[in-house]
Amino acid sequence: MTRALNRLSAAALKTAPVGKHADGGGLWFVKRQDGGAQWVLRVTAHGKRREMGLGAFPDVSLRDAREAADKWRAVTRNGKNPIKERQRAKREAARNMHMLADIALDAFESRKAELKGDGKAGRWFSPLELHVLPKLGKVPVAEIDQRDIRDTLAPIWHDKADTAKKAMNRLSIVMRHAAALGLEVDLQATEKAKALLGKQRHTVTNVPAMNWRDVPAFYQSLGDSVTELALRLLILTAVRSYPIRFIHVDQIDGDVWTVPAAAMKGRLGATSDFRVPLSTEALRVIAEARKFARDGFLFPGLRKGVISDMTMTAFMDRRGLAERPHGFRSSFRDCTAEATNTPREVAETCLGHVSGGAVERAYRRTDYLEQRTAIMGRWSAWLTGLTGHVRFMGSQR
């Protein structure tokens, strides 16, 4: 029986004439006129005779061809069509060979519409790009398990806890995206990885903020470059850096700047824009910034777009300051708490914060624009030296 199945020899294949040569059991060596050769297996599946190619010779050796023939004969004996089974296996292999980097980019593209500025700043993608993809980017997503994720994020799990959390969150979204694409992935891999990594030991630290009493001196030391004008407006309005960097002339109407809801973190409502009262000094800064405007943006970058989120921070670094631009919001809030009796809800609204419970907010429709206009005007006067006494705001009740 063995001789009936294995009729050919490796040596004979090299000198075989043109034609079909049987090795037995339906395996044929086919020599063509052009000198090439290939392997063909003949089987009977579902009552029909079929031929399936097993590859070209000599890429597929005699031994390889016999092993493949044995495999597909067994499939046929189990009542399956070997040709269709091979096609199905190829499709599954193709689905499962998608690399994590490709899936991550596809997930990012799918979510851009939900992100600020269509995600052009790259903040959503950067935790993956910096801390996950360098190690796992070229790994098929179907092969990634909790141990891979643990080993990848372990170096930053405690030392850079916030970044690690973001990376884990983004990776979880990417895994779900892969599953939605029909790929075989472990949707629990990130949760299992968290269990392996353990509870984070990170202690939250606040953004360094300048003492509110020192802010006027810093403000008055600023010049009129694009970066310094941006810092001036940030301090004057107590708005976050993102809306400042992307402020557009079309958003300004008289002495009110309307920040689109999409640019407001923690905005007052899912679709609510945020009105910012502009003091006389803020309007002066905006007038100066208009000289530098490009495509309507008041604070353009050197080559394209707007200034980056690190531009103002780098300026403060060059001044030898540990404080950060975002900290001026805290400076303003501390001032309203320590030097005034401004109602809490008004002070919080100045920062664009949501205050009060859901029911309270449903009935409170005002954004306190009139009160905030007065507060920001007095804050501006304090910053520019027009008001010398710390209790410059008085009662707002």
Automatic annotation (TrEMBL):
GO terms, biological process: DNA integration; DNA recombination
Protein name: Integrase
Any one Pfam family match given in the protein's UniProt record, by short name: Phage_int_M
Protein family: Belongs to the 'phage' integrase family.
All copies of domain Tyr recombinase, residue ranges: 205-376
The entry's keywords: DNA integration, DNA recombination, DNA-binding
PROSITE patterns listed in its UniProt record: TYR_RECOMBINASE (PS51898)
A molecular function (GO) term: DNA binding
Gene3D superfamilies: 1.10.150.130, Integrase, DNA-binding domain (3.30.160.390), Intergrase catalytic core (1.10.443.10)
InterPro entries according to UniProt: DNA_brk_join_enz, Integrase-like_cat_sf, Integrase_catalytic, Integrase_DNA-bd_sf, Integrase_DNA_bind_dom, Integrase_recombinase_N, Phage_int_M, Phage_Integrase
Keyword flag DNA-binding: yes
Superkingdom per UniProt: Bacteria
This protein's record includes keyword DNA-binding: yes
